[in-house]
Write a structure and sequence with these properties.
The protein is an alpha+beta fold. The chain is built from 34 helices and 60 strands. Among the domains are: 214 residues, P-loop containing nucleotide triphosphate hydrolases (Rossmann fold, 3-Layer(aba) Sandwich), CATH 3.40.50.300; 79 residues, no CATH class; 176 residues; 112 residues, 7 Propeller (Methylamine Dehydrogenase, Chain H), CATH 2.130.10; 119 residues, 7 Propeller (Methylamine Dehydrogenase, Chain H). Helices cover 30% and strands 26% of the residues. InterPro entries: NPHP3-like_N, P-loop_NTPase, Quinoprotein_ADH-like_sf, WD40/YVTN_repeat-like_dom_sf, WD40_repeat_dom_sf, WD40_rpt, WH_TANC1/2.
């Protein structure tokens, strides 16, 4: 697209000179024939010879594309991408025309401005500033939505102050070519301008946005800035784009408004960027935009100013946008970023720093001649008595100094026309004198900035002046959110006049905007002055020192201003939500005064500054101690007030980690407690800030440091809480994954992922917060958390380390499953016809293919039938005629076929070191058998019959456990001598049933997830249960590498993140109560919980139970006392009933009922026990210890016996018929039945 005199364009599409019709025919023929070769001839050639690989290792993927669809096929011929039309509605077309402006080789959009139809030439000339056009009529869509947005568009206040359009007569060739790109169909939908700092990228972006807006083409624009919280992340990127699209077009507004009115749309505004894009833009606008005859332009500036992980998310999402709706065209600017090169590779990239020097020199000369002309100098300095303008020599010197960097030219103009000095002649002489002493042109901006600062603060300046300079400039550069000068003065403790004194001399690099907010004129200045490699620079600011200073300032501000009930709210308003309280004008006014912008900044950002600070600084330590001793809960209260108006991320875990090596041991423990406090109560505190004291603190564990230190804050509470837990329970967080959770994997660094059929989510193991979502139709994750996923037969890779994704390959046939090697850069994919393909990710190359794979279905819930060993050396997959194929994971060479009685394999699991393979096979009697194989050569090591389908290895591979929904847990040891399976007797494990998943920790703790009891932790070394964690319908469980965290997921998509050390000590309070009963004299209360624990309480002093017993292995469902109160009975979900003596709480008898269904209710007299399930009622003779009869055809939800054994009556309630039946126990007949209504 760009002409020869503009060097530096990198195009990723090779141009074909062949006539369009011939090209189309050639590509169509090639694609069909190659597909036939791979997926027909290839399979027939393989036949049943699974051990041979017909594909040579030199075969490589090629790509063909039609419209927006692409397909990669395997061929020995070197082919390249050919693209026809960017709009999916015209896929495969060789000529596309809109309106009257059309040729077979130059297809352009139909652009109207008023009554004019603009030709391509007119659009080019207008974009270059060579043609004047009438203003377009402004269209403002009626929008009643509350889309959150950042002030980030080209015509918003802040960006407008930072950027001006290109000076007339400059950048003409580049802007003309961008105009051509906008209007021509078939050009890349995303065009990237890449260039060094100061070369003029943002000015070009601003110019394109402004002029595209004049043409009615600009749908939206976003100017990133690391200095503003809303403009440095992806949080509000797509909601802002959606808002601007609503303003741009009435139809867009209506469609997006309809989407937001739905529940999914409402929730999408606070979801991840990918969800925002799909729900707010792609789905509502897909059909509307595709019917348009002109492009919709989006300008995105300074992607390098966005946080790294978000930048890659945005780039991937924008690629998805133009793929789904090709009429969108996106201009994106960025500094060179090597870690994004692989993502930019599929788009046109133009490198501004490679443009011919003569072109840029002429542009800079034109700009300087105008800016330093007599007329322009007079307009800037109207009180200047002696007219002045720059001479040709002056201009030549400045052009020579600027080189290719426009920022040097524009900053020079600021220096020369400094309003504080008002002497351009003197300023020019000083500047030229400095330039003469330096080698020009400047290759690096730092040399130029050194000249500017030496003029402001000469070498050897007063130390006080230098310290003030560093504090003021360092603060402005390091602030996470800009503050006006007045607030700045309060924060850093420097007089406003002193701040103005520093800024007055730096007007060329720091500009005062409206509201007196100082901001850096160009971000390159921040980079230079914070560069820690600067040699001998007196002006350099050490970022660590700067963050230490700001941390101290923030803590001082909080220590001075924070207090309990900071808004002084009285009466019932203390107990309403924060949003409700703030509806009162007096409260709102009080909040603006008490929680000023300075205190707000300190509360939000101190925890970020301290992670970059020197935590051993004595002043910082003193402030931290004061904050910890007096104000931590007050800070949490203010966080509650602030979060009622805005959202921001809080993570005390990062602060705790940064303080790890300090001497403040108590503070670290307090931070840990504070982190747990926030994790548990932040939702309530965000709803009502004063709940910090009224609700959260009273329910904080009484032995925690947080409670002990701050219990004084509850002195004024109306209510008192006693009998609370002593220590933190095991639950850290219970986030929602969404769909059923099939797998959980921890990384060595503590993050973990939860996997479902449609997406994989990354979670912080300290807080349980989600950081990233990857969606696809087939998903696979490796132990290092890299992810492979499939969408419409395209396979993509997501790299966890770089937080980026890229396309791998497209297959012409539907994919059944994929798996990923952690260490060997290999991916394997299977297809419904039995084909298995091994792919090299590092070189994007097909290794080999082989047949014989067997899969039950395309369901993602099926057990593992395809797997790499953890070290990537072996690949195993299930064979269609029974057994397992074991292959080399690097080159695909066959190792052995592992067959056991020709049985079909149900599940494959490698040992952690990759030396053994366990396979669970299904034999003819439909029972499962565990088989063990040596991965070196496929040697059979042993088998264990009648096991469950779930299998797990211990960390060292010496223990294997198996279990299932109808099989108890069984444990084996693998000896080094014979490598065989040796069964270990474990009576406690043998009683567990309904097992859904198993996992070992690094220290041989075993997690057993069951449908009945939740998750049980078992210490293998001591053969004892450690803890029971209630959790319904678990489907996946995993331990962190450091054994401090356990994560579990269930069928409903709920996750549970648990702290394992807390699980050891918090069992008495962790499970939900499932049954309660009073003794006849009300002196005792007995409770039963879901973890099977019985607790007995003295009702006169119920702060703690007087006894606690773990006698049941499943949830306690029912409790009942005998009429005289001497005994009580407890029943559980496994149909076990236990009799207890009330006085000493000893077990007098235990009964295991051989009946179907869960035990629901019991009633007991001196001689008789009645027990009910949903299907039956059974009578038990206590004296003879036997069943004497069954009553009726239906069960009962509730039972009650009369108090006298003579003429004993039993009442039962049937929930199906909603009726109560009274039985004569002696005759076993009903006396009466009556309905209780609905």
């Amino acid at each position: 697209m760009f002409r020869n005199y503009l060097l530096g364009r990198r195009s990723n599409k090779k141009k074909e000179e062949t006539a369009p019709s011939a090209v189309n025919e050639r590509v169509s023929t090639r694609a069909s024939s190659l597909t036939a070769i791979l997926f027909s001839g290839f399979r027939s050639h393989i036949g049943n010879q699974r051990s041979q690989s017909p594909m040579s290792q030199s075969t490589v993927p090629a790509s063909t594309r039609s419209g927006s669809e692409s397909s990669h096929v395997f061929t020995g011929i070197d082919t390249h991408v050919i693209e026809f039309g960017s709009n999916a509605d015209f896929a495969g077309a060789t000529a596309i025309a809109f309106g009257a402006h059309s040729t077979a080789t130059n297809n352009s959009y139909h652009i109207r401005l008023g009554d004019q139809v603009l030709t391509e030439t007119k659009v080019e000339e207008f974009m270059a500033g060579l043609l004047a056009l009438p203003d377009k009529m402004e269209k403002m869509a009626a929008l009643s939505t509350d889309l959150p947005r950042a002030m980030a568009a080209h015509n918003d206040y802040m960006p407008q102050k930072e950027h001006e359009p290109c000076f007339n007569g400059t950048r003409e060739a580049l802007l003309k070519e961008i105009g051509s790109w906008l209007i021509i169909i078939g050009t890349s939908q995303i065009h990237v301008l890449s260039g060094l700092a100061g070369i003029g990228k943002s000015t070009i972006a601003y110019t394109v946005a402004q002029r595209a807006d004049r043409l009615g083409l600009l749908g939206a624009s976003f100017f990133f800035s690391r200095k503003e919280a809303e403009r440095r992340t992806a949080e509000k990127f797509f909601t802002t784009i959606a808002f601007q699209l609503c303003v741009y077009d009435v139809q867009f507004a209506r469609a997006i408004e309809r989407a937001i009115s739905m529940n999914q749309g409402k929730s999408a505004t606070t979801k991840d960027p990918e969800t925002q894009l799909n729900v707010l833009i792609i789905e509502p606008l897909r059909d509307i935009v595709r019917s348009r005859t002109q492009p919709v332009v989006i300008v995105v500036d300074a992607l390098d100013e966005c946080e790294d992980k978000d930048a890659q998310v945005i780039l991937n999402a924008l690629s998805q946008l133009v793929h789904e709706i090709p009429s969108f065209k996106i201009l994106l600017t960025t500094r060179p970023q090597p870690h994004l090169d692989h993502l930019l590779g599929s788009h046109d990239v133009f490198y501004l720093h490679n443009v011919e020097e003569k072109i840029i020199e002429n542009d800079i000369r034109s700009y300087l001649k105008f800016s330093l002309s007599m007329e322009q100098v007079k307009s800037v300095l109207p009180t200047l008595r002696t007219p002045w303008n720059a001479t040709d020599d002056d201009i030549d010197a400045l052009v020579q100094a600027a080189g290719k960097l426009f920022i040097i030219a524009s900053t020079s103009v600021f220096v020369i026309l400094d309003k504080a000095v008002r002497n351009p002649s003197s300023q020019m002489k000083k500047l030229r004198s400095e330039l003469a002493r330096n080698h020009t042109p400047f290759i690096a901006l730092g040399d130029f900035y050194s000249i500017i600062l030496r003029a402001v603060i000469p070498p050897g300046s007063d130390r006080v002046l230098m310290v003030r300079f560093r504090k003021v400039v360092g603060t402005i550069v390091l602030l996470y959110d800009p503050l006006p000068v007045q607030a700045l003065a309060h924060l850093i403790g420097i007089e406003e006049d002193d701040i103005y004194g520093v800024l007055d001399n730096l007007r060329s690099v720091i500009i005062l905007g409206t509201n007196d907010i100082p901001f850096i004129y160009h971000k390159s200045f921040s980079d230079w002055i914070m560069d820690q490699d600067g040699k001998g620079e007196d002006h350099r600011i050490d970022p660590r020192d700067g963050h230490t200073f700001l941390t101290i300032c923030c803590l001082q501000t909080m220590n001075k201003r924070l207090k309990r009930n900071i808004l002084n709210i009285r009466g019932v308003l203390q107990f309403v939500t924060s949003s409700e309280a703030l509806k009162r004008k007096r409260i709102k006014k009080r909040m603006l005064k008490k929680i000023s912008s300075v205190l707000r900044y300190a509360c939000v950002y101190w925890s970020r500054h301290i992670t970059e600070a020197n935590v051993d600084d004595s002043d910082l330590i003193d402030q931290v101690r004061t904050f910890a001793d007096e104000h931590l809960p007050h800070w949490i209260e203010v966080v509650g007030w602030i979060s009622s108006e805005t959202t921001f991320s809080l993570n005390l875990q990062h602060v705790e980690q940064s303080m790890r090596n300090t001497t403040l041991h108590d503070f670290r423990e307090l931070l840990s407690d504070g982190h747990r406090f926030l994790s548990k109560f932040i939702a309530h505190i965000g709803s009502s800030a004063l709940f910090t004291y009224h609700s959260a603190l009273p329910f904080t564990p009484t032995e925690s440091m947080f409670y002990r230190k701050y219990k004084r804050e509850m002195m004024h509470n109306i209510c008192r809480v006693s009998g609370g837990s002593k220590t933190w329970d095991a639950v850290i967080a219970s986030p929602i994954h969404g769909p059923r959770v099939d797998r959980i994997v921890f990384s060595e660094h503590g993050e973990f992922v939860s996997c479902s059929a449609s997406d994989i989510k990354f979670w912080n193991s300290s807080t349980g917060t989600c950081s990233t979502i990857v969606s696809g139709d087939r998903l696979a994750t490796s132990e290092n958390l890299n992810i492979a996923f499939e969408s419409e037969n395209d396979i993509y890779m997501y790299e966890h380390k770089t937080k980026s994704s890229f396309h791998v390959v497209n297959f012409p046939e539907p994919i059944v499953s994929i798996t990923l090697s952690s260490t060997r850069h290999r991916l394997a994919a299977t297809f419904s016809g039995g084909l298995v393909v091994l792919w090299a990710l590092d070189v994007s190359k097909l290794i080999t293919g082989f047949g014989g794979f067997a899969s039950d279905s395309r369901s993602s819930h099926e057990p593992c039938h395809l797997a790499f060993s953890p070290n990537g050396d072996r690949l195993a997959y299930r064979l269609v005629d029974g057994g397992v194929a074991l292959r080399n994971g690097i080159d695909g060479e066959q190792i052995a076929d592992l067959e056991y009685n020709s049985a079909m394999v149900h599940h494959l699991v490698f040992s952690p070191d990759g030396s053994r393979l366990a396979s669970v096979v299904v034999e003819d009697d439909h029972k499962h058998t565990l088989t063990l194989w040596d991965c070196t050569d496929g040697t059979f090591l042993g088998a264990a019959p009648d096991v469950g389908p779930e299998v797990a290895f211990s960390a060292d591979g010496t223990l294997i456990v198996a279990g299932g929904r109808s099989s108890a847990a069984k444990l084996w040891r693998v000896n080094n001598e014979d490598q065989g399976l040796h069964f270990i007797e474990t009576p406690d494990l043998s009683s567990l049933e309904s097992i859904s998943c198993l996992a070992f920790s690094q220290n041989d703790m075993l997690a057993i997830a069951t449908a009945d009891t939740g998750i049980k932790l078992y210490d293998v070394a001591n053969s004892s249960f450690i803890a029971t964690i209630p959790f319904q319908k678990p489907t996946a469980v995993a331990f962190s590498h450091d054994c401090t965290r356990l994560a579990a997921g269930n069928e409903d998509g709920v996750l549970r993140l648990l702290d394992i050390p807390s699980a050891h000590t918090s069992q008495e309070n962790s499970a939900h109560i499932s049954a309660l009963v009073f003794s006849p004299d009300c002196s005792r209360l007995v409770s039963g919980s879901e973890d099977g624990i019985i607790r007995i309480w003295n009702t006169s002093c119920a702060s703690e139970p007087i006894a606690s017993y773990e006698a049941h292995l499943s949830k306690i469902t029912t409790l009942a006392f005998t009429p005289n109160g001497s005994q009580f009975v407890s029943g559980d979900a496994n149909r076990t009933i236990i009799f207890w003596c009330t006085n000493d709480c000893a077990i007098s008898n235990a009964i295991r009922w051989l009946i179907a269904g869960e035990l629901i209710s019991v009633a007991v007299s001196n001689d008789l026990l009645a027990a009910a399930t949903e299907d039956t009622i059974i009578l038990w003779d206590r004296q003879r210890s036997c069943i004497i009869d069954r009553l009726g055809e239906c069960g009962s939800m509730l039972l009650s016996l009369s108090n006298h054994d003579e003429n004993l009556l039993l009442a039962s309630f049937n929930s199906h018929s909603n009726s109560v039946t009274v039985w004569d126990v002696q005759s076993r007949t009903p006396c009466a039945t009556f309905s209780v209504g609905k």
